[in-house]
């Protein structure tokens, strides 16, 4: 695993919130303030904004919802809706196999959002916890990779930045 000294990367979260109309979970803000985008085991990409690119990144969160919107409109999203619908999904990651990873924007605050995984084979699952809980659980084996390849992650997963 690559270790980088934890620093504040200077991301303008207010600009992102202004663009999207929502704040983000504290664990994600902490993760993003410490690390750039990364890939787990050459498979799962976690999308993180860069300083100076907040407006484009925020717009991109809406742009990547077009496929989900099409699925929703055709009744093929298992009832999940794209953001900004109430309880809608915001994408935080994807895989090289076409899987999509989202927050479900439910609850009183972003810290109560859950994780939704839309597997490339139309396998949908929901994890009742935070993004960092989900990622750590995948790596330790405490969270099953439902809808993902059964061998993900490997025995000694690599994290590439």
Overview of this protein structure:
By secondary structure, the protein is of the alpha+beta class. The protein has one domain. Helix content is 28%, strand content 18%. Strand 3 and strand 4 form a beta hairpin. Helix 1 packs parallel to helix 3.
Please give a quick description of this structure.
The chain has 161 residues and is of the alpha+beta class.
Salient structural properties:
28% helix; single chain; alpha+beta; 161 residues; 7-stranded antiparallel β-sheet; 5 helices
- Can you give the mean pLDDT? 92
Strand arrangement within the widest β-sheet reads 6-5-4-3-2-1-7
The tally of helices reads: 5
Rg, Å, rounded: 15 Å
In total, the number of domains comes to: 1
Basic shape: globular
- Helical coverage, percent range: 25-40%
User: What are the low-pLDDT stretches, counting only 5+ consecutive residues below 50?
Assistant: 1-5
* Helix/strand order: HHEEHHEEEEHE
Oligomer: single chain
Distance between the terminal alpha carbons, to the nearest Å?
A: 10 Å
Biggest sheet architecture: 7 strands, antiparallel
How many strand segments? 7
Structural class: alpha+beta
Strand content: 15-25%
């Amino acid at each position: 695993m690559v270790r980088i000294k934890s620093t504040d990367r200077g991301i303008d979260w207010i600009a992102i919130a202004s663009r999207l109309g929502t704040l983000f979970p504290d664990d994600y803000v902490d993760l993003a303030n410490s690390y750039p985008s990364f890939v787990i085991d050459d498979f799962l990409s976690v999308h993180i904004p860069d300083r100076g690119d907040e407006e484009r990144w925020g717009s991109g969160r809406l742009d990547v919802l077009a496929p989900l919107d099409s699925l929703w409109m055709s009744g093929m999203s298992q009832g999940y809706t794209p953001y900004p619908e109430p309880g809608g999904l915001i994408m935080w990651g994807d895989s090289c196999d076409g899987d999509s990873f989202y927050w479900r924007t439910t609850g009183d605050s972003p810290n109560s959002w859950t994780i939704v995984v839309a597997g490339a084979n139309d396998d949908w699952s929901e994890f009742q916890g935070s993004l960092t809980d989900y990622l750590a659980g995948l790596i330790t084996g405490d969270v099953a990779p439902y809808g993902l390849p059964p061998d993900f992650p490997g025995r000694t997963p690599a994290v590439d930045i």
